[in-house]
């Protein structure tokens, strides 16, 4: 899977809606007729979804199908009349456009603060090309500099993961919503693990 990171440096050096739109437009430029497109979750990915909808409505884009990574993205795509499909019908995705919460100089990512990390990962892994759209606020010198690492777990036995994460040097905490533990679209919990520094590359700690 090829992975690209598009940021808004060419547009502005400060966070703005215009920067979101610029990076989103450049990502959507990569979509061609006949493609199955993974639709990410979050503010920046949402800007790309809106741009796809605009181009479909004006005839600049046609004959595509989207696979949303969250219920919110699905609802937005339906509102914009973007044709949708799923992984049962299309096991290989041509291009996925998504955002990230942190991006290191080496291109490593933290994703999932919006709570859609499991579906985002499944869609990304099954994509020929993954394009990550970010603005300047997401660029960091090291992962974990600003954001905790989100880990999605099933509710049953969720607390059994805490000691393992502490052994890795994390300070784990269950994410809460307004009425109790935060629930993902699939009914799972999220543990936010904050590291003072990475003891090892994240993939080695899986």
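-> sequence recovered:
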């Amino acid at each position: 899977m090829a992975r690209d990171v598009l940021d808004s440096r060419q547009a502005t050096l400060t966070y703005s809606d215009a920067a979101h739109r610029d990076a989103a437009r450049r990502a959507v430029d990569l979509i061609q007729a006949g493609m199955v497109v993974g639709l990410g979750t979050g503010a920046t990915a949402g800007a790309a979804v809106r741009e796809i909808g605009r181009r479909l409505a004006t005839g600049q884009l046609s004959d595509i199908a989207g696979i949303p990574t969250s219920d919110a993205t699905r609802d937005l795509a339906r509102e914009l009349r973007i044709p949708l499909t799923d992984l049962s019908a299309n096991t290989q995705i041509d291009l996925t456009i998504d955002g990230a919460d942190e991006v290191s100089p080496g291109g490593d990512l933290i994703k999932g603060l919006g709570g859609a990390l499991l579906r985002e990962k499944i869609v990304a892994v099954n994509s020929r090309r993954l394009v990550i759209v970010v603005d300047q606020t997401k660029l960091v010198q090291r992962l974990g500099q600003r954001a905790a690492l989100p880990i999605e777990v099933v509710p049953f036995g969720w607390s059994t993961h805490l000691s393992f994460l502490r052994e890795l040097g994390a300070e784990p905490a269950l994410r809460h919503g307004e009425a109790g533990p935060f629930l993902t679209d699939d009914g799972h919990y999220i543990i936010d693990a904050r590291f003072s520094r990475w003891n090892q590359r994240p993939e080695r700690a899986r």
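Residues 8-15, 202-206 have pLDDT under 50 and may be disordered.
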